[in-house]
């Protein structure tokens, strides 16, 4: 089962200066006045629904996150803010200062420290910002769940420009150990009760043969593994180049102008494993950029926020891979995406579940820390 709050603090102190920037010095005191008290989060079976125990969370070290959103979550009876989490320097989509604990590659950014702290058992979820995939991609890279809530109105202060010249305003999102946990965080931050829709929305997937994954396999073919037998009716669309962010933003704009509740489902990954999918190395000449950043692995994830939508990530049992369900703006659209996510979460648990060893080491964190007690 999950670590006690005291053990979480021990692990957080060991991570200071790496994935952790700062630790809440009042965490134990605040937890003592909350529902469940200073004990573990989640239940011994690894689930979170219905648990009265505390959830600890971290916040990306980014001043653009509205303080009111953080305060809404921190004031909840079942949540305690535990850490400030490291973010990639300059908001880069690859963090050269941190290592992904699963892939041994540089951590995907820019919400980079938060997912690591979830894997370390420090937090149940983290708050991040997403400009061009900086919540969705790190979640996929660490096989965690995520929601990005730009379409619900959860946005950062100020505007920015992506490395490929697209203007955007960041969306706020949540990465965590379960779908229940990240939806709970989104509910607290937005003030909405996020319920699965009564019926399923229109679902669009890439046409067979139109999108290849980093390993060369067909995206539509892999999606069939999860969609066949799920009772989800789908229509296919020929995306010109799903890895071309500018073109994909236009495609999503076109889809959501017609119907903002339409959902686009992609299978993405492995993220930043076969190479680092970042624009900066590719701006240099010579043969080296193709070697270090030539394999594209981020498709829809880096376009959803710029297109103004929301998204849900469901991890699968393949390393650094998962399903991405995106939708347009509004409450109805998000609830439609959530209804699909709930259904696909069940399918994934049967077809390609997360490995038991991953759950034992990271999600349920069976190993408590045993720090040295020196006899000075």
Short description:
The protein is α/β, with parallel strands linked by helices. Helix content is about 30%, strand content about 20%.
Task: Set down the secondary structure blueprint.
Blueprint: H1 5-14, E1 20-23, H2 27-32, E2 55-60, H3 67-74, E3 79-85, E4 94-99, E5 106-108, H4 113-119, E6 125-130, H5 136-141, E7 145-148, E8 155-161, E9 167-176, H6 179-190, E10 203-206, H7 219-227, E11 234-237, H8 245-258, E12 263-268, H9 279-282, H10 288-293, E13 310-315, E14 322-327, H11 331-351, H12 356-363
Parallel strand pairs: 2-3, 2-6, 10-11, 10-12
Antiparallel strand pairs: 1-3, 4-5, 6-9, 7-9, 7-13, 8-9, 12-14, 13-14
Helix pairs in contact: 3-6
Description:
This protein is of the alpha/beta class and 376 residues long. The chain has two domains: 5-190 and 357-363, Alpha-Beta Complex (Amidase signature (AS) enzymes); 203-350, no CATH class. The chain contains twelve helices and 14 strands. The chain has helices spanning 5-14, 27-32, 67-74, 113-119, 136-141, 179-190, 219-227, 245-258, 279-282, 288-293, 331-351, 356-363, and strands spanning 20-23, 55-60, 79-85, 94-99, 106-108, 125-130, 145-148, 155-161, 167-176, 203-206, 234-237, 263-268, 310-315, 322-327. Strands 1, 2, 3, 6, 7, 8, 9, 10, 11, 12, 13 and 14 form a twelve-stranded mixed beta sheet that branches. α3 links the parallel β2 (55-60) and β3 (79-85). The longest helix is centred in the last third of the chain and has 21 residues, at 331-351. The relative contact order is 0.14. The model is unreliable at 38-47 (pLDDT under 50).
